[in-house]
Amino acid sequence: MLSKKTCRRFSLVTLLFFFLSLEGVRVLAQDILDSPTTQEGFSTTGTGGNTGTSSTSNPSTGTGDGTSTSNSNAGTEVAAEPLTVPKNEEECVLVEPFGRYNIPALEIAEGESWNRGPCGQFAMTSSMKGRGKNVRFVNVLKEMNPLNIFTVPVDLVRFAISKGFSCSQESHQSINRLLSEIRSTKRSVLCLVHASELEKSGDSYKIKKQNEPHWVNVVGFRLAKGEPKEIFLKDSYWANGSGKVKSMPVSEFDFLWKENVGIAKVMLDPKRLLLILGAADSADFFDHLSNYFTYMSAGEVLASSVTTGARALDAMYRGFIKLFTTGNPMELIRGANHLVSAATKLVGGLVGFVTVKIGEGISHAGRWLMDQGANLWKNGGILGKFVAIPFLVLGSALKIIGGVLQVVGNLVASVFESIGNLVEDIANAIADFFGAILDAINPLNWF
Q1: DSSP assignment of 351-376, as one string?
Q2: CATH topology of domain 42-291
Q3: Closest listed residue to residue 42, CA positions, set 107, 112, 86, 104
Q4: Cα distances (Å, whole numbers) of residue 110 to 238, 239, 279
């Protein structure tokens, strides 16, 4: 039998959790009312007290310069600032609805005042808005890239899946693959290029001034005799303003896309890399599972450790402030666990990256030996053929060994990435759950 004292304690705890559950339901309900997750037609994401929608039955109509005849007084409305449709639309293959892929001027100003140069988050925000998700540019920035550093592909993939979008990463793709995806789905595709200044000579390009890697959202093509001639981009460099779209010759885009430059080439080597997002709420169990069982390059894992560490430092900074102002330690705990995740990825990334580079060196030596053997076999006569055999055999063996080491290095890094992601997601779940409870019982939040 339980004592009366124990029963009273159990009853008090039960009542407390009952109260907290009611509080949680109230907060959740209020969040749903205040922040709808989908757009009706062209939804608003207002900064003021009013947030209206423009329904599909009474859509706003663009004037061609990024303005609209909508009479809503919301702070920033996508319908009021549609993405400007290219001229001669009948010659184009475009995303639909085209205007919804815009980011309103107030959101751009809000984001840039907080964080300058966020190309990955800009492209992702445009992509999600176009698919009907009511995301706000500055919130995407804060969640994914709080310290204004680079964005690795895995960060975009994980963020998209966390918001309900299926998302996959593909490399070594082609212009025709891009065109086919947009034509069949009417949805945009994210691509990693570099924003270098180019110099054209005849039909070829060369880099005049090297610039950094850059994410763009591809929203369409212009065709000539059925072949892609121009490509349309929405991004933070060439088409940063509200309503703006960058038109670029396909040949120029392909040069910027086919091979990256600088540290991205060393770490990621993302040749013709693209990200494909599904429709809103298209993520299923297997998409979420892919966060933990994805084969990645060791270089990307190493880069991921840096971006994870940046989010950890930001969370710890905010956690210290929240701890001293409200007494809630969960944000600080979140940051500390993210730091553990970053350290895990860093260790795995380093081990994998070194292993991969050793493998590449061995493979290169094997290719050199095979080239020498092939040359002796072809030009060395009968004696040369005898000498060529050990060159060819040893070269083949080294190529196999080097290839195995590269796979092993990437696999080791991928395992550490998965562990780090699991630590990060568990930390987020715990911090969100217990943080909400502590905020709910904090008297400072009752008024």
Answers
A1: HHHHHHHHHHHHHHHHHHHHHHHHHH
A2: Cathepsin B; Chain A (3.90.70)
A3: 104
A4: 19, 17, 27
Domain boundaries, the chain: 42-291, 307-445
Q: 26-39 in b/e burial notation, b at 16+ Cβ within 10 A?
A: eeeeeeeeeeeeeb
pLDDT digits (tens, 9 = 90+) for 362-414: 999 999 999 999 999 888 888 888 888 999 999 999 999 999 999 999 999 99
Residues 167 and 120: their CA atoms lie apart, in Å, by 15
Residues 447 and 371: their CA atoms lie apart, in Å, by 77
The type of residue at 205 is: Y
Q: Determine how many CB atoms are found less than 10 A away from the CB of residue 40.
A: 15
Q: What is the mean pLDDT of residues 159-187?
A: 92
What is the identity of the amino acid at 363?
A: S
Rounded to the nearest integer, the mean pLDDT of the chain is 80
A 10 A CB-CB count for 325 gives: 9
Could you identify the residue written with the tokens 């009542």? 15
**Contact indicator for 50, 75 with CB cutoff of 8 Å:** yes
Determine the longest span between alpha carbons in the chain, in angstroms: 101
Spatial CB neighbours of 11, under 8 Å, sequence gap ≥ 6: none
Positive or negative torsion for Cα 232, 137, 158, 353 = positive
The predicted-structure confidence for 120-137, as pLDDT tens digits, reads as follows 999 999 999 999 988 999
- The vertex-429 CA angle with 163 and 436, nearest 5°, equals 100
What tokens appear for 445 in the block?
């939040």
